[in-house]
Design brief:
It contains 10 helices and 12 strands. The protein is of the alpha+beta class. The two termini are 18 Å apart. Strands 1, 6, 7, 8, 9, 10, 11 and 12 form an 8-stranded mixed beta sheet that branches. Strands 2-5 form a two-stranded antiparallel ribbon. The chain has a two-stranded antiparallel ribbon with strand order 3-4. It folds into 2 domains: 257 residues, Cysteine proteinases (Cathepsin B, Chain A), CATH 3.90.70; 62 residues, no CATH class. A hairpin with a 4-residue loop joins strand 9 and strand 10. The longest helix has 21 residues. Helix 2 runs parallel beside helix 5 and helix 8 runs antiparallel to helix 10. 30% of the residues lie in helices and 19% in strands. This is Guanylyl cyclase. InterPro entries: GUCD1 (IPR018616). Pfam families: Guanylate_cyc_2.
Length: 327
C-alpha cells in the first residue's frame, strides 16, 4: 500500500505530462487509526439543506458540511457570494408582461447555470386598461449570468473555511472528452481555462488534490470510522432510477443527455443492509438510502471523473490506515 503523501506530487506530475501515476487501479484507501474498525453501522447526523435552484446542489452540500462541523452562521447565499464564478453570457431585453414568480423559478439554463440577477426597470403599476395593477407582472430588462460550480470550486470553498479534506478525482482539470456531452458542452468551453488554473494553483494554496480512484467499499470503511463524511459528484439520472421520483427528479427524464451532474453528501453506512445513508439537497426527505452497487454506478458514470471530497470530522488529514485494522 502506497501512503497518500507519496502519491500527491508524483501522480499530479505524471498525469500532466502524460505518464502513468503511482497507482493506475484502485488501491486501498487509508486513514490514521490505532484500533480496528469493528462497528457494523455508523451515521453522522448531518443537517439536511435543500438546494434553491437546479445548479446549487454543490453549495447546499458544502453548507451541510459546515453545519456538521459547527459553522452555523452562514447560509447558501453567503456561499454563493464567496464562490462567485459568474460571467455575463448574454443580454436579453424583454418587453411585455412577465410573471416574475414563474420566471424566477423556471427560467434557467440546464448546462451553464441559471438567471442569477436581474437589472429590472419597473414602470410603476402597469395598467392593462382597466385601472388595475399588473398583480405580479412587470416590464423589465435583465442580464443572463452563468454560475458554473465545479468540484474544485467546492474544494476551494471548504479550504476557505479551514475544513480538513482530501479531493480525489481521476482527472486533474477539466476533462476535454466531455466537450461532446450535452450537459458539459457550453460550460466546458466557458470554464476550461478557469478550472485548469484552479487545479494548477491548488498545491500552492494548500489544497490536497489526488489523482486516483476510490471504491464504494473503501468509502464505507471511512464512514464507519465516524470521522469522515463525503461530498460526491454523481449522475443524478442514475440516482433517480433507484429513488422514489419527486417533482425535481422529473427534470432528469426530460433531458436529452445520459448524464446530469449532481452532488450528494454520504454520511452513513450499514454493513447489514449494505446501504449508504445519503443527504440529497434535491430531495424533500432528509434520509435517503443507496446500495454500494448503486453508489458506484452513479459515482463512476461518464461525466463525474469520480470526483469526491472526503471530509475529516476530526480535524486531521487522512493518511495510512492499514487493511489489517479492518475486521
Amino acid at each position: 500500500m502506497v501512503p497518500w503523501r507519496f502519491r500527491v506530487i508524483a501522480d499530479k506530475l505524471a498525469k500532466m505530462i502524460g505518464g502513468r501515476g503511482a497507482d493506475d487501479g484502485e488501491d486501498d484507501f487509508s486513514l490514521p487509526f490505532d484500533h480496528p474498525i469493528d462497528c457494523r453501522s455508523n451515521s453522522v447526523d448531518v443537517p439536511h439543506m435543500r438546494q434553491r435552484f437546479d445548479w446549487d446542489c454543490g453549495l447546499a452540500c458544502v453548507l451541510m458540511v459546515l453545519r456538521t462541523v459547527g459553522l452555523e452562521q452562514f447560509d447558501i447565499r453567503d456561499l454563493e457570494k464567496i464562490c462567485d464564478t459568474t460571467r455575463q453570457v448574454a443580454l436579453v431585453f424583454c418587453s411585455g408582461y412577465i410573471d416574475l414568480h414563474y420566471f424566477l423559478l423556471r427560467t434557467r439554463t440546464k448546462t451553464i447555470g441559471h438567471i442569477k440577477t436581474f437589472k429590472y426597470e419597473s414602470h410603476g403599476e402597469l395598467d392593462r386598461g382597466n385601472g388595475s395593477s399588473s398583480n405580479g407582472f412587470m416590464m423589465l430588462s435583465f442580464s443572463v449570468l452563468a454560475l458554473n460550480i465545479w468540484t474544485v470550486d467546492l474544494a476551494y470553498l471548504l479550504h476557505k473555511f479551514s475544513v480538513k479534506f482530501s479531493f480525489l478525482t481521476v482527472t486533474l482539470g477539466a476533462n476535454p472528452e466531455y466537450s461532446a456531452e450535452s450537459y458539459y458542452r457550453e460550460q466546458l468551453q466557458d470554464d476550461i481555462e478557469r478550472v485548469n488554473g484552479l487545479f494548477e494553483k491548488a498545491l500552492e494554496a494548500g489544497i490536497n488534490i489526488q489523482c486516483r480512484s476510490i471504491s464504494a467499499k473503501d468509502i464505507s470503511l471511512l464512514i464507519l470510522t465516524g470521522q469522515c463524511v463525503a461530498v460526491a459528484l454523481v449522475n443524478k439520472i442514475k440516482l433517480s432510477q433507484y429513488w422514489t421520483k419527486d417533482a425535481q427528479d422529473a427534470d432528469c427524464y426530460m433531458s436529452n443527455s445520459d448524464y446530469m451532474g449532481h452532488y450528494v453528501v454520504i454520511c452513513g453506512f450499514d454493513r447489514g443492509s449494505g446501504e449508504f445513508e445519503i443527504r440529497d439537497p434535491a430531495s424533500p426527505r432528509k434520509h435517503e438510502k443507496l446500495s454500494i452497487e448503486c453508489l458506484d454506478e452513479a459515482r463512476k458514470s461518464f461525466g463525474t471523473d469520480e470526483d469526491i471530497l472526503l471530509i475529516s470530522l476530526s480535524g486531521k488529514k487522512f493518511t495510512n490506515l492499514s487493511s489489517r485494522l479492518v475486521k
